[in-house]
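Hello Y.,

Per our agreement to keep a running log of every chain we model this quarter, I'm adding this entry. I've kept the format consistent with earlier entries: sequence first, then predicted structure.
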Amino acid sequence: MTSTPTGRYAGRALGTATAVMGGASLLWPHALAKRFSGGRSTPDNAVVRVLGGRQLLQGTAQMVRPVRDVILVGIVVDVVHVFSMLVLSVVWPQYRRSTLTSATIATLSAAAGTAVVMTDRG
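Predicted structure for the entry above:
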């Protein structure tokens, strides 16, 4: 576990938020893609579901085992996702709004994970 009760709580809270976002992407891919596309082209539902499945797995792992190493792996996965979305925003400009929104969410998730790791030094 993380070294303090506060760290465990924060790790589980991060995991819960991540899992909820992932679950929503699995259940309502078109609605979410449409909402975040700003009226532009929306990615295929399968793409949204795959990314949602990744978030659901990551969040579940963080909820079940809120240890430093699991949180750190989540941070790395989020950072890789950010860079992949930035590349895709250039390669497929018709999906730029969606990819940049996804990159922003992953950036916030990585920042939250970093805050959990940095503040849990008990």
